[in-house]
Amino acid sequence: MTYATIDQRTTYNTEDRGLTAITARVKAAIERNRVYRQTQRELSQLTDRDLADLGIARGTINQIARDAARAA
């Protein structure tokens, strides 16, 4: 015969790690969103001349902001 033992502490710890992992993912997503918005806002405030000096076209600001957010 085979018996199974349920350890409540293990179950609790598994749930805790799951909740901790979810919380960490949410915090990371919030931080990436903050970096995206900040980068987009700062680049959008630059003049076309300033952007040209940096080698950035105004149409690529969203892509640059997405890349910055992924790197964060």
Low-confidence stretches: none
Average pLDDT rating: 86
Order of helical and strand elements: HHH
Distance between the termini: 53 Å
Counting DSSP H or I runs of 4 or more residues, the number of helices is 3
| Fraction of residues in H or I helices | over 70%
Largest sheet geometry? none
β-strand number? 0
* Computed structural class: mainly alpha
Q: Could you tell me the radius of gyration in angstroms?
A: 22 Å
Label the overall shape. Answer: rod-shaped
| % residues in beta strands | under 5%
Report on this model:
The protein has 72 residues and is an all-alpha fold. Helix content is 76%, strand content 0%. The chain has helices at 8-44, 48-54, 61-71. Helix 1 packs antiparallel against helix 3. The longest helix has 37 residues, at 8-44. The protein is rod-shaped and about 50 Å long. The model has no long low-confidence stretch (mean pLDDT 86).
Descriptive keywords:
single chain, 72 residues, mainly alpha, 76% helix
